[in-house]
Amino acid sequence: MIATVPMAGEFDTPTRAEAGPEPEVPEKAEQRRFSAAYKLKFPAEYEGLDRPGKGALLRREGLYSSLINEWRKQRDHLMGSLEVALQALLLLAQLC
User: Fold this and answer.
1) Between vectors from CA 32 to CA 59 and to CA 69, what angle results, nearest 5°?
2) Given this model, what pLDDT does residue 9 score?
3) CB atoms within 10 A of CB 14
4) N or C: which end of the chain has fewer CB within 10 A?
5) 52: pLDDT strictly greater than 80
6) Residue 59 falls within a domain, yes or no?
7) Distance of CA 77 to the CA centre of its chain
8) How far apart are CA 42 and CA 34, in angstroms?
9) 46 CB-near residues (< 8 Å, 6+ apart)
10) Which domain does 75 fall in, by range?
């Protein structure tokens, strides 16, 4: 009887598809959520750095500069709204 040597790919190990999904990789990634305090604090810290420092901070936190720009817009809109509300309250206080 002649023994045959298995050729490449003929081993009895399951293929990647047969083995199922990898346990370390979730099927669907969860979207990160950031608190309002973080969204206010982070752009201020970011703006105080030089260019290499900004890049290092973004890499450390795993963020993109476009997200920081969006948070800046939200902050500026919020501050503008608060300023208008404060002016309205001051006007009402003067009328009373």
Assistant:
1) 60
2) 55
3) 9
4) N
5) yes
6) yes
7) 21
8) 10
9) 54, 57, 58, 68
10) 34-95
pLDDT digits (tens, 9 = 90+) for 82-91: 899 999 998 8
What is the C-alpha separation between 7 and 4, in angstroms, rounded?
9
For the record, the structure tokens of 10 come out as: 């003929």
In a domain, 52, yes or no: yes
Q: Give the pair of three-digit tokens for residue 54.
A: 């900004």
Residue 27 — pLDDT band, cuts 50, 70, 90? confident
What 3-state class would DSSP assign to 80?
helix
Report how many domains make up the chain.
1
Instruction: Measure the CA–CA gap between 17 and 15, rounded to whole angstroms.
Output: 5
Query: Using alpha carbons only, how large is the chain's radius of gyration in Å?
Result: 28
What distance in Å separates the CA atoms of residue 85 and residue 56, rounded to the nearest whole number?
37
Q: How far is the C-alpha of 30 from the C-alpha of 33, rounded, in Å?
A: 9
Q: Hunting for tokens 């009402």 — which residue is that?
A: 92
Please say whether the beta carbons of 32 and 40 come within 8 A. Answer: no
Whose structure tokens read 């047969």? 18
